Amino acid sequence: MARGRRGARRLALQALYQRQLAGHGVAELVEQYSASKEFRGIDAAYFSLLLEEIVPAEAELDALIQEAADRPPAQLDPVEHAVLWIGANELRAHPDVPGGVVIDEAVELAKEFGAQDSFRYVNAVLDALNRRLRGDAVPATGT
């Protein structure tokens, strides 16, 4: 079971995926996921914060993603879309989290939940966003 912030990102991905399919709001998602067994041991405050930041900023995050992507966010697989929302949000709103960590965490989520090579796409988009938003160049991880 993923713990701490990694677990918070993992559950946020699941909640954001569900939101795309069913349209649930932040309060409903937090209530539902906080009752799950996976919630124990994660950084609950970070999980809630991610949802509170991402949901009202979906259009703004999509605009950022569009700048670095080769297709409109609406055409993305819902898993990739949710992973990119989390990564783009962390890059813009959480300077305390190093860009390399944001990208690595997103790549791991895409490997676990996404289509076979979606992690490569997530890596490329977030790397471009990291350079644009933070001016960081993150060395390739070889994944």
Walk me through the structure.
The chain is mainly α. It has one domain: NusB-like (N-utilizing Substance Protein B Homolog, Chain A, Orthogonal Bundle), CATH 1.10.940.10. The protein has 7 helices and no strands. It has helices spanning 4-22, 26-34, 44-54, 58-68, 78-93, 99-113, 118-134. The chain is globular.
SSE string: HHHHHHH
Helix-and-strand structural type: mainly alpha
Q: Note the quaternary state here.
A: single chain
Instruction: Kindly provide the name of the CATH class.
Output: Mainly Alpha
Strand content: under 5%
Give the beta-strand count: 0
What helical percentage do the residues reach?
A: 55-70%
Mean pLDDT: 93
* Largest sheet, strands/sense/barrel: none
Determine Rg (CA atoms, Å): 14 Å
**Proper CATH architecture:** Orthogonal Bundle
Shape: globular
How many helices? The count is 7
CATH-assigned homologous superfamily:
NusB-like
In CATH, the topology is named: N-utilizing Substance Protein B Homolog, Chain A
Uncertain segments are none
How far apart are the termini? Answer: 22 Å
Number of domains: 1
